[in-house]
Amino acid sequence: MRIGFDLDEVVVDLTGPLVKLANDHYDLELSRDSFQIYDFKNNVYVDDTKLNDEIIDFLIYYANDEEFQFKAEPCAGAVNTLLYLNWLYHTIYFITSRPVENKGTTEDWLRKYNIPHAELIVLGYGVEKGPAGKHNHLDFFLDDRISHLESMLKHKRDWPGGLFVIDRPWNRYSEKFNRIYDWSEVGKTIGGQYA
Ligand SMILES: [Mg+2]
Fold first, then answer.
1. Where are the alpha helices (DSSP H) in 65-161?
2. What is the CA radius of gyration of the chain?
3. Are strands 162-166 and 140-143 parallel, antiparallel or unpaired?
4. Using one digit for the tens of pLDDT, what is the confidence trace for 34-57?
5. Is 90 exceeded by the pLDDT of residue 191?
C-alpha cells in the first residue's frame, strides 16, 4: 500500500521538548495535557493574559524553528515500525504542514534516524493535505489533527487502508476517525494488510 503519515506529534515528538522548554523558561508546570486544543493560540496556560500571549508566541516560535525541530526525537516506536513497514514493501509518504523552507532540515532529520520514505511533502501552515493525499494515491493516512483527515476524505473517498487519528489530548473531541494509541498498533494495523 501507499501509506502516509503526518510528522509532528505523529513521528516527531515536539510536545515533549516544547513543554520542557516553556516550563524552564517561564517556571510553569505544563504537561502534554495542557494542550487541549490543537492550536497553541487557543489554549490557556496562565491566568495573566499578557503572559499567556507571550507563552503562545514562545511556543509557536520554537515549534516552527528548524533547529528545534532537528533536535526533537522520534515518538516511541515510530522508527522501528516504519522500518518494519518498509521491509513489508509498503511505500511511505510524509505530509507535513511545516514551513516549506524547513524541508531540507526535515529531510536531514529523517536521514539522521534512517527513516525510509518515498517522498517528503512539505506544504506550509494552513495548506490542505487532501490534494496531496489524492495526488499520491494514498491508501492509508495517519495524523493527529482531525481537520487534515477530514481534508483527506473530502478529496479522496476511497481509503482501503483507512484514515486514522493518533490519540492526543487535542483530538479527543472527535470520534469520526479510527483511533490508534501507539506505534505498535500502527504496525499491526498496516502490517496485516498486503503491500
Ligand atoms: Mg501533526
1. 66-71, 78-87, 103-112, 130-135, 146-155
2. 17
3. parallel
4. 999 988 999 999 999 999 999 999
5. no
**Ligand 1 center from residue 127 Cα (angstroms):** 13
88 Cα–ligand 1 center, Å: 25
Average pLDDT (180-194) is 92
Comparing C-alpha atoms, which of 184, 175, 3, 165 is closest to residue 89?
3
Give the model confidence (pLDDT) of 2-12 as tens digits. 999 999 999 99
Ligand 1 centre from 178 Cα, in Å? 16
The CATH number assigned to the domain with range 2-13+73-190 reads 3.40.50.1000
Q: How many CB atoms lie within 10 A of CB 87?
A: 11
Q: How far apart, in whole angstroms, are the C-alpha atoms of residue 64 and residue 74?
A: 16
Global pTM value: 0.95
Which residue, among 66, 129, 70, 122, has the nearest Cα to 96 in the 3D structure? 122
| Residue extents of the structural domains in the chain | 2-13+73-190, 15-70
CA of 69 to the centre of ligand 1 (A): 13
Residue 194: which pLDDT band, with cuts at 50, 70 and 90? confident
Degrees to nearest 5, angle at CA 162 with 87 and 95: 70
Q: Which one-letter DSSP state was computed for residue 81?
A: H
Between the CA of 9 and the centroid of ligand 1 the distance, in Å, is: 5
What distance in angstroms lies between residue 195's CA and the mean position of ligand 1's atoms?
A: 25
Q: Would the CA dihedral through 174, 177, 178, 181 be positive or negative?
A: negative
